Amino acid sequence: MIEIKKILVSTDFSKGSEAAYPVAQKVASKFGSKIDFIHVIPTLKYLNESLKKVGAPLDMDKDIYPKIMEESEHLCAKAMSSYISDRNKGQYFVKIDRKPSEAIVQHAINNNYDMIIMGARGKHGTSMLRGGTTEKVIRGSKIPVFSVDAKVNESSIDNILMPTDTSPLSLAAFPLTVGLADTYNATITLLHVIELYGSISEEIPRQPEKGELLSIYEVVMERLNNFLADAGKDQIKIQRTGKDYEDQVVITDGDESRTIPLHTIIEKGISAHYEIEHYAQNYADLVIMATHGHSGFAHLILGSTAEKVAQYVSKPVITMRPDKKLFKN
Fold first, then answer.
1. pLDDT at position 154, please?
2. Which residues in 196-298 belong to E strands, given as ranges?
3. Topology (CATH) of 159-326
4. What are phi and psi of 188, to 5 degrees?
5. Of 8, 17, 42, 179, whose CB neighbour count within 10 A is largest?
């Protein structure tokens, strides 16, 4: 289905960061992952320069940073010991960098992680639902970023929302969505928004006997099946139930199989991100979406809209950047 072998948990040891620890353990328990922790100490350039100018008997590199690193390593070890099981426990890393978000993203790239899990807001809380570091990691990461808050627990995720513009790139989030729905025993809801000023789905031929919404729904199912076949996801199948908009995902694991309820919603709205936010706030417990949709259509739900959803939805969000080389445009 999908593999999540390595998880990187970013922490600044705040209450907001701690929300990510049990989530990482839950995911790791399902996929047999190793969990590493990373803490980035921001460089205090101006303080360092000021100390030198006034001739203070302290040196940041020799006197301050080593002590901060030692304390940070202690806190990492303590957090892992408290929240992460021995079978999933990996390493911890403490770095010093001027830009923590870039250090986190680069560490994830260099060490082949499959997912970054971090608190929606860390120590430096803002009025935004996702803090500056989290937002920048979401924007820069090439692997899925799961940003969580304290509301997530073992039984809090019942409905996972996956927006789609019907393009293969947007559907690339589906295997991960299935994997997390299986982890949390949740339902999957696909949401496609027909925007007032045009969407990819305006290219879909309408069948007069079925009407606009049902025509789009049928094509979403067809494109989803085609994506799964082209991507070689043989363990995941869509089983039609005969009831429109209500289907099932069948996961085959050796001789065993299990099903996940799959709902599809086709909505009309002025803007995709507003409709996604509205549905997520009222009905979803987790949002999973690709960060780039079909190229050349600036108004699509993916790309900048994914950033808006991630920033303003007060629910856990997973963003992922599909590999465009996998798809024919």
1. 66
2. 236-243, 246-253, 256-269, 286-290
3. Rossmann fold (3.40.50)
4. -110, 135
5. 8
